[in-house]
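Q: Structure tokens for this one, please.
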Amino acid sequence: MPSDASFAQDPEADRWHYRPADPVALNPLFTWPLNLKSVFDWYRGAWLQITSVSICFILALAVWFIFIPPLEAMQSFAPGWMARVWLANLLPQILVAGTLHWWLYMRKGQGTEKKFEARDPTRMSGHFSFGNQVRDNVFWTLGSAITVATIYQWVIFWCMANSYVPTVTFAENPVWCGIWLALIPMWSSLHYYWAHRLEHHPKLYPRFHAVHHRNVTTGPWTGISNHWLENLLYFSTYWIHFLVASHPLHLTWHAMFQQVSPAFSHSGFERVVVGNKDASRAGDFFHQLHHRYFECNYGTSEIPFDRWFGTFHDGSAAATKRTRAHKKQMYTK
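A: Here is the predicted structure, written as tokens:
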């Protein structure tokens, strides 16, 4: 990894409107020898500051209290509780993605401060449904992604209610419930890496993942703007609840993290700035690099699969050179 001084002068910076001052960081939990302070700072930064993780967890608590009915009400498929689960997915997505899009791209509340790409999402282009990138993204997000995610959740809640899958309560096992809440983002990262690598297979990519990668310049609505078939794979992360003893709150938290956090990571801005002060973390430069260079950073910074398998891009010009060589070799084969 380049030193801070060399990274600041790295020519890759000229390819971006804004690039973070330091190389992309990975979870220090997987660095040996283990530095406990670094690990603590990593998770404190994710959970105890205003970030996509903390916001989505607060949303999950609110959604669980307001929308998710008790399990006994979900023992048979009925329009009432099924509609409530659908609204529990739909409304937070509209609230978060809509608010971010309004502030960053409609009101332009912080101009281009902390904006990775100089360009905005495309307004007029035949590459997108309806000839407009934002309308395309809204359609695939609310029409495809939220539909698939909701159907999966209907089935899992129904199985929980009928004791077809292992369940747990906070009163019976508070320790496991707390541990599983903490591990869900890590499970999401593990599943996402392998599902995403599969989606980039040359025989699969043009058939469905290309719908998402039409978005070279991303925005909040880009996050889960995926083809129907891709969403079947992307949201199969929820199937873990068929195997691991879970509470309805675990599935609700999993849903908010999986569905809503991509609105932040694809926002196109590193941070949300209000009144000349950083209000929250927003975009993920790790994933922004993937949207520009495609064959790198398939996973997340939570588990360093990309470093282990040689596809990690830390934001430097040297990493861009390696990525382009890897891409050329891969497509030549």
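A few notes: The mean pLDDT is 94. The two ends are 29 Å apart (CA to CA).
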